[in-house]
Amino acid sequence: MKTRAAVAFEAGKPLEICDVDLEGPRAGEVLVEIKATGVCHTDAFTLSGDDPEGAFPAILGHEGAGVVVDVGPGVSSLKPGDHVIPLYTPECRQCDFCLHPKTNLCQSIRETQGRGVMPDGSSRFSLDGKPILHYMGCSTFANHTVLPEIALARVREDAPFDKICYIGCGVTTGIGAVAFTMKVEPGSTVAVWGLGGIGLNVIQGAKMVGASRIIGVDLNPDKVALARKFGMTDFVNPKDVDDVVGHLVEMTGGGLDYTFECIGNVNTMRQALEACHKGWGESCIVGVAGAGQEISTRPFQLVTGRSWKGTAFGGARGRTDVPRIVDWYMDGRINIDDLITHTMPLEDINKAFDLMHSGESIRSVVLY
Ligand code: APR
Ligand code: ZN
Predict the structure, then answer these.
(1) Domain check: are 160 and 32 in the same one?
(2) Protein residue whose Cα sits closest to atom 23 of ligand 1
């Protein structure tokens, strides 16, 4: 079949809207009509050419929602008409990682996914007979796409695609970091570096689990009003204080129970660790640092009881946890609507990247 897609032909160039060829689902695969997709920093990172795994031409996009159109042989858990969210972190429920209670990083299709192909080693997309690569196993910048069955979460049918697509990456990353990776307890003190799309989701996760104090750290005071709406109780602008770590330690009588770095900057990662309370404070790296960058601290920080962790996809096991997060949204426990600041048709997708780079948007969503 033909489908409309925004194709990344080359690093650093705008996406081009094309009618591409899409082959139907093979064994264990599912054809999905994408109804809406968010545009995330990770798409921009890959498009920039800085992503060591990035390869072109490719159809980017990994934050979508849609409807199953067709299933290949052997698919048993999904049928045409089911509503789904694509998962760049799949859940096979069989590999060593899925069977281990401490991780969500299913490895069953990791190698082929990283190369931009389906698990059998081939691509379903092509243009003029030449293959186009998949991206993060999702390629939601195409109106139709093919995914492995294990990379789709089935979700309730009354949930709006234009909002729940954001659960495919940003919402789950932020809320999951709090609820699944760090398991923040009620009454905890929390600090969050970066009040963008990821940091605001960490804040609302912290509020949801009952944190007593939620301190936001950001250079941009324009972020304060929305962050307060999502549950931030205190704001610190690093420009206004000499020593961010010392200031936070003083504010909290010894440091934070939990900190979250949601910028992707190795200097703020160090601050977030060192602002943790001696003896028990735990810091979680959520932001993605540039290729080749390294973190540092004095080992004494860890010896004296602070710990450093990281999270991918918020520690969520996609097929199990994503439908629960959709329920949290539908029950009014989390706010997605106020984070989606812009929507546009696929033809205008390059505007979504401009809005992200200028810092004007929290999240842009493309509606098919
Ligand atoms: N100190 C404090 N705040 C900072 C600093 C800094 N040194 N640098 C940037 N910020 C703030 C910005 O003002 C902005 O509010 O961090 C926020 C980042 O927000 P966004 O640009 O909206 O980024 P977001 O989508 O939240 O993603 C953050 O997570 O997914 C990764 O790759 C992504 O690494 C990025 C991070
Ligand atoms: Zn993402």
Answers:
(1) yes
(2) 196
The verdict on 246 and 342 lying in the same domain is no
Give the three-class secondary structure for 117: coil
Of 310, 333, 353, the domain-final residue: 310
Q: Are 44 and 264 in contact (CB under 8 A)?
A: no
Question: Residue with structure tokens 């650093």?
Answer: 12
Digit-coded pLDDT (tens) for 306-315: 999 999 999 9
Is the distance from the beta carbon of residue 270 to the nearest atom of ligand 1 less than 6 Å? no
- The pLDDT score that the predictor gives to residue 192 is 98
What pLDDT, on the 0 to 100 scale, is given for residue 52? 85
ipTM value:
0.96
CA distance 192 to 269: 11
Domain shared by 272 and 332, yes or no: no
DSSP secondary structure code for residue 24 in this structure: P
What pTM does this model have? 0.96
The domain that holds 17 is classified in CATH as 3.90.180.10
Positions in the chain short of pLDDT 70: none
Nearest CA to ligand 1 atom 19: 196
| Same domain, residue pair 116 and 21 | yes
Is 334 among the domain residues?
Answer: yes
CA atoms within 13 A on the CB side of 138: 29
The answer to whether position 355 is within a domain reads yes
Q: Are residues 153 and 219 in the same domain?
A: no
Give yes or no for a contact between 8 and 134, defined as CB atoms under 8 angstroms apart: no
> Using a 6 Å cutoff on CB, does residue 291 contact ligand 1?
no
Reduced to 3 states, what is the DSSP secondary structure of residue 333? Answer: coil
What is the residue range of 225's domain? 182-310
The DSSP secondary-structure symbol of 36 reads: E
Tens digit of pLDDT for each residue in 139-196?
A: 999 999 999 999 999 999 999 999 999 999 999 999 999 999 999 999 999 999 999 9
> Is residue 62 within 6 Å of ligand 1 at its C-beta?
no
